[in-house]
Amino acid sequence: MRALTQGFLFFTYLFLALTAGAFLWSANLGAGAAVAAGFGVLGLFLALHTLITAKADKAALKKEIEHVREAHRLLADAMESTQGALTELAQAIESGAVTSNEALSGEVRMLETLISQMSESLDHRMAQPTPVNTYEARHREQSNVLLQTIHEALAENRVDLYLQPVVSLPQRRTIFYESFTRLRAADDRVMMPAEYLSVAEGEGLVPAIDNLLLFRCAQIVRRLARQDRKVGVFCNVALSSLGDETFFPQFLDFLSENRDLNQALIFELGQATFDARGAAEARNMAKLADLGFRFSIDKVQTLDLDFADLQRSDVKFMKVAADLLIEQLLDMDGASALPSLRDISAADFAGLTRRYGIELIAEKCETERQIVDILELDIGMGQGHLFGEPRAIKEAVLAETDPPADFIRSTLRSADQRRRFS
Questions:
Q1: pLDDT given at position 396
Q2: Residue 141: is it exposed, middle or buried by C-beta count within 10 angstroms (0-12/13-18/19+)?
Q3: Most-buried pick from 126, 181, 197, 367 (CB within 10 A)?
Q4: What CA–CA distances, in Å, run from 52 to 2, 15, 49, 126?
Q5: Tell me, what's the pLDDT at 33?
């Protein structure tokens, strides 16, 4: 950015100097040739001065723009002053008050003074220390504080589990729950994922959070089974956890020991996450599928999906926002919702996904009107605030799902090792 700024100044000064010289030459003022040459020297001097004083610093773009504006202001003031002086000299020559030689000598002295003044001014401006980027420093400090808070929440087991019901339609009987994690700060303030997730991802702590979530989900499923409640739990998992060489073996070992839960634990990924999976993540998903575990995708952005690929990857559930289903299936004015399958009508879509072994779930259900349309589409499950918001499990139940202390220590130790070697 600095180099671009200096280049811009160079050509700007050179252009102004040549333009001024041409103007004065064509005006036939007494010493126009000398003045034009003087302005040429001035422009070249300023251009060279700009290049020599260039600094490879990290000044903000705003500071660079101010430098350019200040240099232009100085040049404009100088040219205005010079123009006034030249006009006075021309009038003096016409009236005979001074000779041409005297005028030439005066113009040269004027240019010398102008060059000296502008050099001093520019040197002073460029020598000013660049202010510290307080925004970056403040952001870095806030990130460090947040990272410490996340680490303490994990170490002290302040990782809460929230559950939201997934119901059958039209009966509205709870048949699944979706699990969510919430971290608590030392003052018991609940931290939403949007607040901490980006920092946790950058520091490699997401797999540690996923491990703790998995442990709690497994305990909840076992507790529900003791109550003869055949309810499954959708457990969100990050792509980084599926591809992590340190965490995934622990993840797989735990599930191997608890493979009897393979019909009750469903691992969920966003559509973008699923599409971004690489070879390592695909292999690890296949290892989980070999143990009998199933997958779900949510945050679906389009219904025109590769259903054969979803089937090969053992995806058994697909969550789509109710509004998106209605918009792309019912509000198409007769157009096909799937460009790749133009013969599929709106009423056939749920049947199509079932042929690939995928059950549709309408998520983000907020109104009764949406449910009328969803039922028209033959969709058998729904999720959203209309059926229940995510709620924290009771403290007594949460205590029963606490992982052992050595499990937490091992998880955090692995996270620290990964961070040091990444």
A1: 72
A2: exposed
A3: 181
A4: 12, 19, 5, 11
A5: 46
Tokens of 45: 């001097």
Whether 284 contacts 242, CB under 8 Å: yes
Indicate whether 31 pLDDT > 80. no
Query: For the chain, what is the HEC assignment?
Result: CHHHHHHHHHHHHHHHHHHHHHHHHHHCCCCHHHHHHHHHHHHHHHHHHHHHCCCCCCCCHHHHHHHHHHHHHHHHHHHHHHHHHHHHHHHHHHHCCCCHHHHHHHHHHHHHHHHHHHHHHHHHHHHCCCCCCHHHHHHHHHHHHHHHHHHHHHHCCCEEEEEEEEEECCCCCEEEEEEEEEEECCCCCEECHHHHHHHHHHCCCHHHHHHHHHHHHHHHHHHHHHCCCCCEEEEECCHHHHHCCCHHHHHHHHHHHCHHHCCCEEEEEEHHHHHCCCHHHHHHHHHHHHCCCEEEEECCCCCCCCHHHHHHCCEEEEEEEHHHHHHHHHCCCCCCCCCCCCCCCHHHHHHHHHHCCCEEEEECCCCHHHHHHHHHCCCCEEECCCCCCCEECCHHHHHHCCCCHHHHHHHHHHHHHHHHHC
pLDDT (average), residues 379-398: 90
Q: Answer for the pair 221, 233: CB distance below 8 angstroms, yes or no.
A: yes
What's the CA dihedral at 50, 55, 61, 63 to 10 degrees? -70
Cβ proximity of 386 and 367 under 8 Å: yes
Q: Judge whether residue 153 has pLDDT over 70.
A: yes
**Residues 6 or more apart in contact with residue 278 via CB below 8 angstroms:** 243
pLDDT in tens, 193-240: 888 888 888 888 888 888 888 888 998 888 888 876 778 999 999 998
C-alpha–C-alpha distance, residues 89 and 86, integer Å: 5
Question: CA 416 to CA 157: how far, in whole Å?
Answer: 17
Task: Report the C-alpha gap between 47 and 229 in whole angstroms.
Answer: 80
Across the range 313-338, mean pLDDT stands at: 83
Do residues 374 and 169 make contact, with C-beta atoms less than 8 angstroms apart?
yes
* 339 contact partners, CB below 8 Å, separation of at least 6: 304
